[in-house]
Amino acid sequence: MLLHFLSVLLGVFAILVSIQAQDQSGFISLDCGQYEDVSYSSLETGINYISDAKFIDTDTSVSKMLQPIGNDTLLQELEYVRSFPNGDRNCYRINVTSGTKYLIRASFHYGNYDDLNDPPQFDLHFGANLWDTVKFFSNESYITTSEIIYTSSQDYIQPCLVNTGSGIPFISAIELRPLNNSNYVTYYSPKSVLSTFMRYDLGNTDLYYRYQADVYDRIWEPYELSSDWRQLSTSVNNDELVQNGYKPAAIVMSTAVTPVNESAPLQLDWVADNVNDKYYLYLHYTEVEKLAGNETRAFNITLNGDSLYGPVIPKYREAHTVYSTPSKTGSKRYRLSLFKTENSTLPPILNAIEIYKRIDFSQSETLQDDVNAITNIKNAYGVTRNWQGDPCSPVNYMWEGLNCNIDGNNISRITSLDLSSSELTGNVVSSISKLTMLQYLDLSNNSLNGHLPDFLMQLRSLKFLNVEKNKLTGLVPSELVERSKRGLLSLSVDDNPGLCMTASCGKKKNLSVPLIASFSALVVVILLISLGYWLFRRSKVMSTYSKKKVSMKSKHQTFRYTEILNITDNFKTIIGDGGFGKVYLGFLQNHTQVAVKILSPSSMQGYKEFQSEAQLLMIVHHRNLVSLIGYCDEGEIKALIYEYMANGNLQQHLLVENSNILQWNERLNIAVDAAYGLDYLHNGCKPPIMHRDLKPSNILLDENMHAKIADFGLSRAFGNDIDSHISTRPAGTLGYADPEFQRSGNTNKKNDVYSFGVILFVLITGRQAIVRAGGENYHILERVIPTIKGGDIQNVIDPRLEGEFSINSAWKVVEIAMSCVSPNVAERPDISQILIELKESLSLEMVHRHGERENDEVGNGVGQCQLEEWDQFEEYLREKMATNTDYMTASHYRLHRIHFQFDVFRINVASGTKYLIRASIYYGNYDNLNKPPQFDLHLGANVWDTVKLFSNESDITTREIIYTSPLNYIQTCLVNTGNGIPFISAVELRYNDDVYDRIWSPYKLSSDWRKLSTSVKNVNLSSDWGGYKPLEIVMRTAVTPVNASAPLHFHWDADNVNDRFYVFMHFYDFEERAANATRALNITVNDMYIFRKDT
């Protein structure tokens, strides 16, 4: 929590030189930016400061001395700043005593040190965890501080300044003060720290106090005295005050506040930064008045009405502290109240208060042994990468070339070290052996010399070792050679002229041993023959496909094996498994979740599928096909990286044991999405692509339950839309594969249609494609088709739906599915036709689901939305009712309720008739939020307008369009765009005073205009008006220029420069003029004529 103090100037802090000097044992005080080797004792506080130069781990920082403001003198430790213009994360490493609790304070005084008058914003990290975001007031005299109370489990801490793109980070001072370990405890939260939210000396209104007055160097702020309070004070020094473990400063405890009204509570309020913040309170009090024998002071303490502690009976000049256990949370506003007890004769008092906010340091830190080892490696080789701060965390700032894993104790361990091409010289350092969890070590392409050391054999987890292209000599340790022969280690030692595998080695050999050495020579030969056969077939069958193929390297990101380890957290979480291999959950550096499919080394089938899937996904892109992000093709390691689908696959959601039952409309949406994807493959790709393995487990669902087709390992492209292909290779999955393909080997689009039909039956019934009953396996079609032919659909539909579906929609899907699985392949529809039918079925379900009722009223249709709930709209309704228009509640029209993504009103109209359609929106603070929403208004499938509301509750917003419907209904839709809940007051298709019911708004008269009017009624609106029929009362008034020689100007602003406007101007001359008087005019828009009377 940032604290802002107007305390840079010397005179603002109380100077307490007369107080006896306190012990500074354990204090660490760094003056940041001060020259190296400079040390001094502060004249203001007596604190001993040293330069920070030896504690930073970069040689690119900049030191700058600030200039005083006016004639004032800066506090000595704030005269310099150190800025970090290079690198994203720059860290200090400060040695501490492990297990000691510290108050740690970082101070920042901008002072316009960079002459930009633009204070930056950046993040402050503490090791692996976010500590705070540093923001500044523009006032140059402010100091911003951030404090935490932290107990280090290691013998060092690492405060880091992180550049977030909003200016160069800098710092003025870092201070550590050891505390009593038994104080400031975050119970039940061992990985939590306390961040200072506020610390007030309540009876003091003008001075700040810190060391030497406070032995822990806490900074006590003065507090503005409330009008409901009065101040109490006494004179007490450190020797006279009986202290507790918190040791509040005696000068702070010498003052207190109490209510002016002795019967009233003493109350203190504050506002939380976030409703979920967790607060710890520390209330310090002592009696500052000597009470008479008949006087008592006792009080109870509450927080937001909940009892905190009591009764409290302060003792004279004896410090006492009340603290909250556990933390307090769940409110935006807090009120601390102190009530005197019934027997108390005096009101409550409070001397000082500290409030801390809990920060959860949840990021795992790297094991200190690993940190020490990698630090020694860094120093030995002079590595100049981004090696600062915690080596492993956070992931965005992990040291370049490292990969880490989190062990069972939530400790990060280094598992991969890549120092290839790093200009390393000298021997292989022994510190590498201290990285006991290392699996991957790459020291290739350097200038390392000496022997390959025996200590590498101690790394029992090592699976990959590459020391190629160095100057190593001698023998490779025998155990490493043996482990490589047994397939336990991938060992690469080429291009080391003096390095041998055996004592008798002679000429240079290729010594790269595969990771999986268990393949026999025969299998390798078979692999090569099969690959050659595949390439031959590909050249003949997929020539057109090959011409369209785009290079993987040019279109998709390539990943190294070390990156795959990092992305998958060392293959930690398996989310799928198939013939190709396992699928792992992963995270890219930008925190994007991905799925990583790893080729099983033993799968020849998987290798072919890897080739097929990678090549196909390079050229197909559709919202209903899973997207390929990148790939890895490094030696034996082959992997595909896809977008992550948060809701797994359709198969998982249809399992009987899954308690989250897919509703009928959800199943239809999934079917429609899958049909879109398949339609793209069949009809959107040239040549068309057959999936050949459609099944529920290959239909994946994202976080919004949108479906995407996946697993293209068996997919094939064919020369034209009607081509069949004879295949001898099995394709598809039992239960979903087309029997016609299994019989004849003919592959075409209708094979996929059959599989899609089976999927539809699985969606309809909730059963598997292969059903086991009575000890026998049955295909789903054998069980459902006889029932369907008997006209019984209720016993076919998944009983878990409990009848909650449209029977018409269900019958339509059953008919679609039946056509898909027709034994006569020629009778099966194209997927494009299936898609149309499924969308119609979905529409039937939505009409049923949201209670559409047919209404035959045509023409003057009015939907008054939620009429019975809009009490505040009553006056407006009465005005409208006076027009004799019949209003009906929206229940006649509503299809979708408000908690869906969109709200739809269906209103029957006369097809081919042009309508003025008006939507009226009146907020009126109906939701008591005082926050009008913003949402989109659609007409059918098209965006009509974006509704933005004024904050004024009395404003009525309307949107109008003129529209001719080709159908016998219109659908007005409200679309939630994430900026508040859509609502509506009225939907109108109508006429009244104005036969078309246009709303004519008044216009503020310009000072350059004068008004003309007539009282004559029955203005002659003859047929010359072209059928526009402007309202008679509107045509009785007009405007004309005050200066008869001047033009009449009218201005408006476009919402967008590309908007197109149609202007309709209505004229009626109602003045009687002399015979020699004429009125004629030309019209221009932006100086271009649109009408000329003189031509």
UniProtKB/TrEMBL annotation:
Reaction(s) catalysed (UniProt annotation): L-seryl-[protein] + ATP = O-phospho-L-seryl-[protein] + ADP + H(+); L-threonyl-[protein] + ATP = O-phospho-L-threonyl-[protein] + ADP + H(+)
PROSITE patterns: PROTEIN_KINASE_ATP, PROTEIN_KINASE_DOM, PROTEIN_KINASE_ST
Presence of the UniProt keyword Kinase in the record: yes
Domain of life from the UniProt record: Eukaryota
Documented EC number(s): 2.7.11.1
Record's subcellular location: Membrane
Annotated binding of ATP, by residue: 597
Cleavable signal peptide: 1-21
Bilayer topology: Single-pass type I membrane protein
Classification via InterPro entries: Kinase-like_dom_sf, Leu-rich_rpt, LRR_dom_sf, Malectin-like_Carb-bd_dom, Prot_kinase_dom, Protein_kinase_ATP_BS, Ser-Thr/Tyr_kinase_cat_dom, Ser/Thr_kinase_AS
Pfam (any one): PK_Tyr_Ser-Thr
CC per GO annotation: membrane
Transmembrane annotation, as ranges: 515-536, 753-770
Domain Protein kinase: 569-842
Key word Signal present: yes
Predominant place of localization: membrane
Protein known as: non-specific serine/threonine protein kinase
Organism: Trifolium subterraneum
